[in-house]
Amino acid sequence: MIKLIALVPLFPLIGFLINGFFGKKLSKGLSGGIASVSVLASFIVAVLAFLELEHSTNKSHVVELFSWISADTLNIPFEFLYDPLSAWFLLIITGIGFLIHIYSTGYMHDDAGFSRFFTYLNLFVFFMLLLVMGNNYLIVFVGWEGVGLCSYLLIGFWFKNQAYNDAARKAFVMNRIGDLGFLLGIILIFVSYGSISYGDVFSRAGVSSNAVVTAIALLLFIGAMGKSAQIPLYTWLPDAMAGPTPVSALIHAATMVTAGIYMIVRSNVFYSISEVASETVAIVGVVTAIFAATIGLLQNDIKKILAYSTVSQLGLMFLGLGVGAFSSSVFHVTTHAFFKALLFLGAGSVIHAMGGEQDIRKMGGLKGKIKITYITMLLGTIAISGIPPFSGFFSKDEILAHTYEHSKLLWVLGMIASMLTAFYMFRMLFLTFFGKFRGTHEQEHHLHESPSSMTIPLMVLAAFSVLGGALGLPEFWHMPNWMSEHLSPIILHKNPSALDHTTEWTLMGLAIVAAGVVIYFAHAMFITNGVLPLESEEKMKPWQKLIYNKYYVDEFYDAVIRKPLDLISTAFYKFLDLQVIDGLVNGVGSMVKGIGSVVRLLQSGNIGFYIVSMVLGVILILLFTFII
Amino acid sequence: MSINYYILLSAVLFIIGAVGVMARRNSIIIFMCIELMLNAVNLMLVSFSTLHNDAKGQVFVFFIMAVAAAEVAVGLAILSMIYRNIKNIDTDLLSNLKN
Asked: Considering the entire predicted model, what is its pTM?
């Protein structure tokens, strides 16, 4: 099956083409069916190939498809790399992608753009697969840009709403800023090593000076900042909630935002060499984790809470990458994919039940009305909050343990971030599902459980969210940590835990106690005392206002970057464009017109005159040639 | 016989033709004068061809004749159309396109 690994991206591509060209003529069932089946087919191939890889001794397979770019010394074949890392990501992308496709057939059922939606969704999966399978940085870049494009198309899916279009554009532009860094990184890699294929580059990485490696690592990280929404390029992700909910789940769980993590794990050699770069990654990660988590505390839009939670969790993953715990971060990507997809799809189910309402202030008491959604979301919330034995606990704990080893300060910050996570997630859960119903009467009447095409993916994801922790059990339980063993072939400088077991137990205990206390506190606040979010901004205390308005970061960017740019471009428009360039262009035009108005008079239409002037001209030319 | 006579005759014919084209207004006459100029050139080609013992000039003469025949056919067709429209073939009256 490994030889046929190119089938994995091929199936969604075919699905994309069919839906793209004939989608409008197909029935909804067929259109959604083709899209879902194409991803399912990829998933099956990915699983078979994965089983083969597990049993083979050769852990790295290169499948060359064709020669792609060949000029002078530059020679870039189009080839796929199939190794434990890409194999694992393929499983996540196609597996969760498939569930999201199934869910979408239910969620988007009444939408006019049904087939268009599945076209984009397939294309998204295709590009993401390309991204993780490429054997050189250029193919990764193609996939990288492709998912950027698809996120633009999908965030602005309901393009009749101008605010949604703005959100799509914002995501696109922010990603472009990061992409510039990534592209410069790739160019620097080529200049330094003369190749951009992974094998060549990583085997020679140690040759170049530390400064070059640091520069490469930092540039690549800028790319990751954009894709994976880290400070300062994170503001697009919460706005990306404008897209349909399954898109949010796809972007946040299986594709797009995990691309940054994947790329850095793939390039782990650079980060192992460069202390400065990995330290930067860790600090940016932990700051993002805390920063986004605090914003999550006071959000009232159910999807925005989840969006900030994603930013925060991604921050934790980068913290893991920064302290060298690459396999732990991939582990957290995996468990996060399970429970974040679950939470988003659950939120979609809530929104579906509420008839499009997303504000948790208008929800409440949904527990009894939509049971399956409630139970699955409860499981997801417990998983993300870090309560054992749910999956999120193990992956987060592994990252935090490695962080503790690396720096106590970062560990404390990481702990705070995960405590905040537990708090706002339970706040969301309590406000949505407990207490009295706060919506309108019609909404209450309209409440109903979602169709089974939506609830079955929820149940599958819930099962994974609960059990996913088994992929990476802590080492002192004398069970193999499957995830770190699986990924060991691709991580060059490993970071074995040097903590003794007592410390590990203590850290773990602390994490559990912290999460427990926070959840108890949230319960007391929102259930026992029935505190509700404030209706209007005026009643808020200054610090609440600050957080509620997301620290005014958007406004800050507006004032510092957008406004000056606007001013400069207006000035350039008024002077350079209107005066100089338009003057030049119009000047040429009016000059030709002026000459024409004089020369025009020569055309009398009188044949005799024409002939005389022709003969005179000939004579003149002859005379001229004789003289010379 | 010296080539000069041929050149002289050809030049005279050509000038008569050129002056006719410039001075006359009747389209038919202008046509005939053009033919005169063409034949002046033909005469020149034939003479030099004989002088140099080279058949190229004669071949060119055939080409010129063929093209001239075609030109006359097209030209006369145009003229007859003009005549049908304005009942006249005076070139001075043919400047209507100017307006």
From this structure: 0.78
